[in-house]
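Morning F.,

Quick status update on the modeling queue. The single chain you submitted on Monday has been processed. Sequence for confirmation:
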Amino acid sequence: MAGLGLGPLIAGIFAEYVAMPTRSVFWAYLGVCALSLAAIAVIPETVRNPDRAISIRPRLSVPPGMRAVMTGVCLGVFAAFSILGSFSSLVPTFLHGILSVHNLALIGAMSFLIFIIAAISQAVSAKLPARRSVSAGLPLLLVCLAALETALFANALWLFLAGTIVGGIAVGLIFRGGLGELNRLAEPRHRAAVVSTFFAAAYLGLGLPAVLTGLISQLAGTVDASAWTSGLVVAIVLAAIFVVLRTFGAAPAPAPPCTPSDS
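Structure tokens below.
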């Protein structure tokens, strides 16, 4: 989550203070990628007998007994990441054109704020049960949406900041609680595919609502387009609340495999 937030933060700093920002930022990013590649080369392998096979084909799976829970989790994380997508792509336009914030580093910092608060929210709520975490995060997401949209219509920067803080807390609770419930219920042989499905829903939320807002803004104003998209996200959040309250914590975790014995 912190890595997602560092993107707009560093981009804003480069855009405001560094020469040739549209080029230099990518050279800096390539440098970070080189460091990551070097780290991977020295990190020890955790698999005892790796097959060395590489496949780029996605493996998504929802076991039959987890479909109801997965529906609630995916709806919740889609809605949560739609907020993050807005802060990555649309919020700079809102802050600059509507709320009259012209310092690009400050705009990047505002986008970074919701991500780092989400990261802190995850850490602080680590011991909170998944049901309580998600059922608290989803209503907070509604508060966040209401504050952000009201701030855009009223040109209130302080309200936008308040919505950002509430949104970060909500995203952290929803993300950690949903992933925790899936890890609790998924059998080891299904866990990788189940978690991949979770992240697929998250990244769809990161991109699709932002694209939808851009398309609607071609017909209506930017603020009106944001309001229409937020209305759609509100409907998704309400559906997620309904499913989560009915399914989270209801199913027992699978029993661990027994060690074979002659008796």
